[in-house]
């Protein structure tokens, strides 16, 4: 299996379609893993080389068990790119993957050809959101003692969307089979993150921002506001379909992937 050992001893697992096409490095949302990009690994290759990374606390990645933030996850992703010999890439992902991609663009702006941001944002949780997510993610899910299945099914409706059997059950089964306490540090990184909305103007790479029409958090208005703050050209696409919620690249690839291909095809080569 492909792993990259980072400077602090983490073993970052990734999936890689290989090939010599332009590289697209994608990162998953909280509680998910690189498997969420299976539709894109199929649909974008072989024209593009698609790499999907398991972040710390998820999938097959192993980490030292010390606190981290999204700047650290961005460093991890760059170390994967470096090991693969990739100079310039398109990067981004779903929610926390998008936050990581934004930080990658701030860390090494000359290496980012474009950004794909799905249901993502740049701000910290506000005074209303923070206690809600603290209660649901930390107290009920990660540190809770009640059976996880009822909560997992509820979260799947909002976080995954789509059809229960075709799209949600895959993740519910993973969650129930895994260690519910494993994402402890990832949950803390999520809730305690700093906002970087005041730095979006520094990011001049073209960006594609997508969100599902039924996303309970990331609305069209919020996505457009984020796009308007970015320093480069930013395109906003709403996936307007039944049960298009948060993880639209997983549930509705027939709608998202043509948009991604069109975006990639329009990027400057240099």
Provide a descriptive summary of the structure in words.
The protein is of the alpha/beta class and 270 residues long. The protein has a single domain (3-123, 195-265), classed as 3-Layer(aba) Sandwich (Rossmann fold), CATH 3.40.50.1820. Helices cover 40% and strands 16% of the residues. The chain has 10 helices and 8 strands. The chain has helices at 38-43, 70-83, 96-107, 129-142, 149-159, 164-177, 184-192, 220-229, 248-251, 253-265, and strands spanning 3-5, 11-16, 23-27, 49-53, 89-94, 112-118, 207-212, 234-239. It has an 8-stranded mixed β-sheet with strand order 1-2-4-3-5-6-7-8, with helices on both faces. It is globular. The protein starts with a strand and ends in a 5-residue tail after the last helix. The model has no long low-confidence stretch (mean pLDDT 97).
What is the helix content?
Answer: 25-40%
What is the highest CATH level, the class? Alpha Beta
Number of strands: 8
Radius of gyration: 17 Å
Unreliable stretches covering 5 or more consecutive residues:
none
- β-strand percent reads 15-25%
Query: How would a textbook summarize the main sheet?
Result: 8 strands, mixed
Number of helices: 10
The helix/strand order is EEEHEHEHEHHHHEHEHH
Q: Under the CATH scheme, which architecture would be assigned?
A: 3-Layer(aba) Sandwich
Write down the overall mean pLDDT. 97
CATH topology: Rossmann fold
How many domains would you count in the coordinates?
A: 1
CATH superfamily: Alpha/Beta hydrolase fold, catalytic domain
């Amino acid at each position: 299996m492909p792993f990259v050992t980072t400077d602090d001893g983490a073993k970052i697992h990734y999936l890689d379609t290989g090939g010599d096409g332009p590289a697209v490095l994608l990162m998953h949302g909280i509680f998910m893993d690189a498997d969420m990009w299976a539709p894109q690994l199929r649909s974008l290759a072989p024209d593009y080389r698609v790499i999907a990374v398991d972040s710390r606390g998820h999938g097959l990645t192993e980490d030292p068990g010390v606190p981290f933030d999204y700047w650290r996850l961005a460093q991890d992703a760059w170390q994967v790119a470096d090991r693969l010999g990739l100079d310039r890439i398109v990067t981004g992902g779903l929610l926390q993957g998008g936050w990581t991609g934004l930080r990658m663009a701030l860390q090494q702006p000359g290496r980012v050809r474009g950004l794909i941001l799905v249901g993502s944002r740049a701000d910290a949780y506000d005074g209303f959101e923070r206690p809600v997510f603290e209660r649901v993610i930390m107290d009920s899910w990660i540190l809770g003692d009640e059976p996880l299945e009822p909560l997992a099914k509820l979260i799947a409706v909002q976080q995954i969307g789509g059809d229960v059997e075709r799209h949600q059950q895959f993740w519910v089964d993973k969650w129930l089979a895994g260690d519910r306490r494993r994402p402890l540090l990832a949950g803390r990184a999520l809730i305690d993150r700093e906002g970087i909305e005041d730095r979006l103007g520094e990011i001049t790479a073209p960006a594609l921002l997508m969100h599902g029409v039924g996303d309970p958090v990331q609305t069209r208005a919020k996505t457009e506001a984020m796009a308007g703050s970015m320093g480069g050209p930013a395109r906003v696409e709403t996936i307007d379909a039944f049960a298009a919620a948060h993880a639209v690249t997983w549930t509705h690839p027939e709608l998202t992937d043509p948009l991604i291909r069109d975006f990639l095809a329009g990027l400057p080569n240099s």
